[in-house]
C-alpha cells in the first residue's frame, strides 16, 4: 500500500468523524454548534479570537484539548520540492508580476522532460514561454480567452520560440485529443473542473508526465465533488461547494489595510443580513456575491442599498446604519468563533482533495510525488502533484 493510500484512509476516517466541525455554515448559525466548546469559545474576545486564528500552531494546540485526534492530520507533512536557483528576471519577462515570476520559475524547476509540452489553461502562457526559453522541444498552450492567446502568441513570436496556442474550451471533449502519450502536460493554478479534466484526460491518454498545481476546488460542474480515485469513491466525503471553499479561505498575508477591509466586509455582510431578515420576515441567511472592495469605502447605508438592489429588495427610506451595524457585532463574534474551529480543517481537507488525485494517478499506473513547489510568500496555492508513467 502506498503512503498516499495510508494517509488518504487516515484522513478520510478523521474528516468523516469530524464532519460536525467543518461542515457548519458560520453565517447561517444562530448559536455555537458544539456544546462542549461553548464555554471555552465564549471566553475568547475578538482580539483573542483574531490572534489565535492567525497563529495556526497555537490554534491547533488550543483545539486539540477537545479534539485530540486532530494533530494526527496536521502531522502529515509534505516535502518541499525543487526551487529555481534565482528569480532574476530577464528583459523578456517584463509584465509578469514578481510573485507570478517566482511561481513559474519554481514550477519549471521541477519539470525535467524531453517531451513536447502541453500547457493547460495557460493564460498568456507565461509558464509555457519560460519552458520554451529553457529549451523545451515544443509547447502548446490551451486557453479559451482569445485575447490572452493573442498576447501570448505575440510574445512567443517576438522571441521566436516553438510555442503555439490553441484557443479552445478545456471542457469540450475535443480538448482531450490534445493529450498524447509522449508528452509532458502541465497546469499551473487550474481551477476545479479544469484540473479534474486535466487529470482524467492525461491518464486516459497515458501521457508520460503530468504536473499540476490545483486551485479553486469549488469551481466544479456538479453540486458535490466526485472523487477521481476508486478508493475516494468508497470513502467519499460528499463535499459540497461550501466545504470545497474552506481550504481557499487561508488568510492572505495582507497588511493592516487588508485586515481592516476584511473586518468591515464581514460586519457589513452581517449587518445587511440582519436588515434583509427584517425586511423579508425570513430568518434565513441570504448570501451576497463577491463585490469590488471600493464598495466598502463609502457608508454602510449605500452598501445596503446596493445589496438590496442585488437581491431585488426594496430598501427602507431611511437606513439606520448604527442600529444594523450594532446588530452585526454579536453575530460577527459568533462567526469568528465557528471559523476558529473550521479553519483547523483547511489543511486536512485540502490534503484529502490532493490525496484523492494522487491515489487516482497511482491507480492509473503512475509514480506520484506531492509537495510544495514554491514558498508561501509567493502564493497560498503551492501544492505540486507530479506523476510519471512507470
Ligand atoms: C487561474 S488562471 C491560470 C493561468 C496560468 N496558468 C497562470 O498560472 O498564470 C486560469 C486560466 O484558465 C482559463 N480558463 C478558464 N476556463 C477555461 C476553459 N473552460 N477552457 C480554457 N481555459 C479556461 C482562464 O481564462 C485563465 O487564463
From TrEMBL:
Residues 112-222 form the Methyltransferase domain. The keyword Metal-binding does not apply. Keywords: Methyltransferase, Transferase. GO terms for biological process: methylation. The keyword Cell inner membrane does not apply. One of its GO terms (molecular function) is methyltransferase activity. It comes from the Bacteria. PANTHER family: GLUTATHIONE S-TRANSFERASE C-TERMINAL DOMAIN-CONTAINING PROTEIN, PTHR13369. This is Methyltransferase. The lineage of its organism: Bacteria, Pseudomonadati, Pseudomonadota, Gammaproteobacteria, Aeromonadales.
